[in-house]
Amino acid sequence: MSASGDVQLPIGVFDSGVGGLTVLNAIRQRLPNENLIYLGDTARVPYGTKSALSVTRYAEQAAKALIERNVKMLVIACNTASAVAIEPLQYLYPDIPVIGVIGPGADASCDATQSQHIGVIATEGTVNNQAYQNAILERLPSASVVAHPCSLFVALAEEGWHNGDLVKQIVEACLEPFRHVDHPMIDTLVLGCTHFPALKGVIGEVMGDAVSLVDSAEITARAVADRLQIDGLLNIGAVKGEVQFLVTDGPTRFARVAQHFFSDPIPASEIQLVDIQHFAH
């Protein structure tokens, strides 16, 4: 994959919907020369309430659709899919890098913590399958990890409710368990859902300066850059890369909600509707 022409190939990024645009945005900002293809499986969102078997099947179909477009890397910009599907995808596509959001987030939280008391907020599905808890404890067995679901943050992020008194009250209520004396005070909080970076400002305000926030989007973008560098696949040309958007349903709604997660407007006319359910292994 390190042949000279291959650096021009796009990076494929997929998610169950729009949340993964925070990852795409972070990659875009860190690697502006890279060509990118984003696939949002909006017909079957959310993944967090589905079985591991279903999510793995959906992830394999999304990956196959991107592989057919000749990508040089796959990025799973979905915590639920990263938890259950990264190993199957790495097995299916051994010739290209496959990166998820959980590993980089776990690495960063272990690097950031001083007290070894780490908190994780995510959707209910991600919390229940303990993907972050297990990944952190594999890297730092002495850590104390407390995870709480904050699924309401997804709706706030998608509606563009990112600040204000009401939003702060909701965030305070959702984060209240981390301020109880039932367990030691955390010094690091993992934003374990790709929607949550949109609320990073108010989450930081509520948790205070003593708590480091681990933004899985930024950390994943760094992991993508590092892996491309290692594999000799960085596109170092002077031309700004192109971005393509694919969805499996509702391009108009996707374009509307995308403005809360992606720094550039995405016209609905530029979003391609695709059917990926016929892809199967």
TrEMBL record:
<feature type="binding site">
    <location>
        <begin position="194"/>
        <end position="195"/>
    </location>
    <ligand>
        <name>substrate</name>
    </ligand>
</feature>
<comment type="similarity">
    <text>Belongs to the aspartate/glutamate racemases family.</text>
</comment>
<dbReference type="InterPro" id="IPR015942">
    <property type="entry name" value="Asp/Glu/hydantoin_racemase"/>
</dbReference>
<feature type="binding site">
    <location>
        <begin position="79"/>
        <end position="80"/>
    </location>
    <ligand>
        <name>substrate</name>
    </ligand>
</feature>
<feature type="binding site">
    <location>
        <begin position="47"/>
        <end position="48"/>
    </location>
    <ligand>
        <name>substrate</name>
    </ligand>
</feature>
<dbReference type="InterPro" id="IPR004391">
    <property type="entry name" value="Glu_race"/>
</dbReference>
<dbReference type="InterPro" id="IPR001920">
    <property type="entry name" value="Asp/Glu_race"/>
</dbReference>
<keyword id="KW-0133">Cell shape</keyword>
<comment type="function">
    <text>Provides the (R)-glutamate required for cell wall biosynthesis.</text>
</comment>
<dbReference type="InterPro" id="IPR018187">
    <property type="entry name" value="Asp/Glu_racemase_AS_1"/>
</dbReference>
<feature type="binding site">
    <location>
        <begin position="15"/>
        <end position="16"/>
    </location>
    <ligand>
        <name>substrate</name>
    </ligand>
</feature>
<dbReference type="GO" id="GO:0008881">
    <property type="term" value="F:glutamate racemase activity"/>
</dbReference>
<dbReference type="InterPro" id="IPR033134">
    <property type="entry name" value="Asp/Glu_racemase_AS_2"/>
</dbReference>
<keyword id="KW-0573">Peptidoglycan synthesis</keyword>
<keyword id="KW-0413">Isomerase</keyword>
<dbReference type="Pfam" id="PF01177">
    <property type="entry name" value="Asp_Glu_race"/>
</dbReference>
<keyword id="KW-0961">Cell wall biogenesis/degradation</keyword>
<feature type="active site" description="Proton donor/acceptor">
    <location>
        <position position="78"/>
    </location>
</feature>
<feature type="active site" description="Proton donor/acceptor">
    <location>
        <position position="193"/>
    </location>
</feature>
<comment type="pathway">
    <text>Cell wall biogenesis; peptidoglycan biosynthesis.</text>
</comment>
<protein>
    <recommendedName>
        <fullName>Glutamate racemase</fullName>
        <ecNumber>5.1.1.3</ecNumber>
    </recommendedName>
</protein>
